[in-house]
Design brief:
single chain; alpha/beta; five-stranded parallel β-sheet; 10 helices; about 10% strand
Amino acid sequence: MAGTSRSDHRVLIVDDHVLFAESLELALSLEGYDVRRLELPEEGGSMATIRSLALRANPRTVFLDLDLGRFGDGMNLVAPLAKAGINVVVLTASEELGRWGGCMRLGARRVLPKSGALQQALATVRRLHQGLPVINRDELETLLDAWARERRAHDDLRRRLDLLTPRERQVLGALIEGRTVREISHVSVVSEATVRTQVKSILNKLEVSSQLAAVGMANQVGWRLGA
């Protein structure tokens, strides 16, 4: 809240990159903020565990890394933290603006690239502490537009994958596992010519020209057999 002491502004750092987290903690502490670094469980734990620990710390601002290692995508924490009235500032090495826009759509106040983030992080907290905006309308609209374009592309890929027959899904699943046409033929007890015909149908429906591209498309949208 504007006008309050920096020592009353608690900042929580959620980042599994210890060196970066410690550097940010030191810089913010020197500025007078009440800084905590969330200690991620070395064993066990889950994204729900991190969410609970973060909320229990009762921060005013959270610096959240999108890549939380074995815990998964930090984007899953943006909405619950933002809904609790916390300023969520996302840190990421990703350059995908669509992903940045997704964070903003979920309630993040700003997304900062990890490269050169230290000074930007300090400036962002200063403005949040003063009750000032940390992103302008043009920047926000650019990120949201990038998210919308990515979402449309994602939905189009899913639409094409939904065209596959159950048998074609099995073949694509085998290709994702790295199996060759010969191996698929042997396991399925059908001729290689039959499998090649099925692969050709998959490529046509997905509108790609190679098995590698088909596998890449499936991985891009997180498609898995049975999902």
